[in-house]
Amino acid sequence: MALIGWKKKKTVSEAERKEAIRNIFGEEGEYNKFYDTVSAAYRVAEFALLGLFLFFVIYSAIANAGNVTYEKFDYIIRNFAVSLDENSDYKSSIFYNPDDDSSFSLFGGGIAVCTGSEVEIFSATGRKTCSERHGYVSPVLSASDKYVIVYEENGVEYSVYNTFSKVYSETLEHPIKGITVSDDGYYAVITRTDEYIGAVALYDSSFNMVNRYLKNSHVISVDISGDGSVAIATLGVDSTGGFVTEITVLNIGESSAAATQSYSGALPLACRFTADGLMLVCEDRVLFLDQNAAKTSEYLYPSGEAVRLELSDSAVLAVIKGDAMKKENTALVINKDGKVAEIKTEGTVISADLYESYGYVLTERGIYTLSGGASAFNEVEEALPNDEIVAYSPSKLYYCGTSSAKVIEME
User: Fold this and answer.
1) Which of 221, 330, 363, 388 pairs with 348 at a CA distance of 20 to 30 A?
2) How does pLDDT run across 382-391, given as a tens digit for each residue?
3) What is the largest CA-CA distance in the chain?
4) How far is CA 55 from CA 50, 58, 168, 349, in A?
5) Angle, alpha carbons 206-269-337 (nearest 5°)
């Protein structure tokens, strides 16, 4: 029986192989000589490139001898270790040294903890990357994606930390009234001078002062945008003795204002850049401003004192005091179009936080959630007066207690 489709494999004889080589390169000896020449050329190129690389390494080491330190080498090694953690899951709990009066802030994907004696920084996976003693009596914490800054309340010294250690500190001549730090590492220190009531010192991410803004009125708040702008809110009085709030917008590196607007009768508490302008949060209202600081809309709080205010890049969370005997309050999330969500809360307000337009309020009864017109309530077993909540996503937050931060997923 014949095998259909079968072909005998053709073999090439030694003579045919040599003939093919001669047709392309000439005699076989010339063929070998060709490849020997090519191989030698590649070897010469290899040693030349290796020599250039070694020269570059030696030259760079000599030229940057002052910048090559053990601390920077240690930073590279530890940063590599943290990078290995990036694809790991979030830990359900993060443990730190016990303290009844700690403050907390998001730092990158993890959390920064400032106790009465030290600063501890944790990655999102719960790994402690930094532990440094600060020495401040009344420490205040401010953080962004790049730096953690701790300063003495009404003191003259502040310290800057990265993921692993303290990287800078400075002692000023006058008391610090506040510090704002942006995600790209720029930060602004609110203080004063001998001649001016208000002063703002703006630093870049390498701790060099790039601007100093002087004001004849009290600086209440400063914010730094991602596109290189600074907003300064100040409080003064007019000829009749009434409050006047001034909002000034400046471009980093320029001394003259890009825009300035004044608003009478408004007592400012904070200012914040948004995607298309600014928010000016006051004692009784929120003003939404365009890029030139001109008012585009306004929202007046319901009657009552704002006992808690939190800001994000897109909204404001305001907790308005209600019936004191019943410990009832009203929590609102507000954007430039008006009220987004509202919920009545019961119990003493312990903490509050805002992630984008998702608001959370912690009372002694539990956690109230406000988002997109909806609201919910999650009971907490035992909420203590010094507990704090820190939101890091639309549905997840750190519940920070005396010695640990637990991850809670909201409804």
Assistant:
1) 221
2) 788 889 999 9
3) 117
4) 9, 5, 33, 64
5) 100
Structure token pair of residue 130: 């930094």
Residue 323: both structure tokens together: 């019936």
pTM, rounded to two decimals: 0.77
List of long-range contacts for 198-206, beta carbons under 8 Å, 24+ apart: 198/234, 199/174, 200/230, 200/232, 201/172, 202/230, 202/252, 205/146, 205/147
Convert the pLDDT of each residue in 79-95 to its tens digit: 545 554 554 455 678 89
User: Rounded to an integer, what distance in angstroms lies between the CA atom of residue 91 and that of residue 113?
Assistant: 16
* pLDDT at residue 16 in the model: 66
Residue 112 token pair: 């920064």
d(CA 218, CA 237): 10
Q: Which two tokens stand for residue 54?
A: 């070694």
Cα→Cα distances 76→68, 73, 81, 169, Å:
12, 5, 9, 21
Q: Tell whether the model's pLDDT for residue 5 goes beyond 50.
A: no
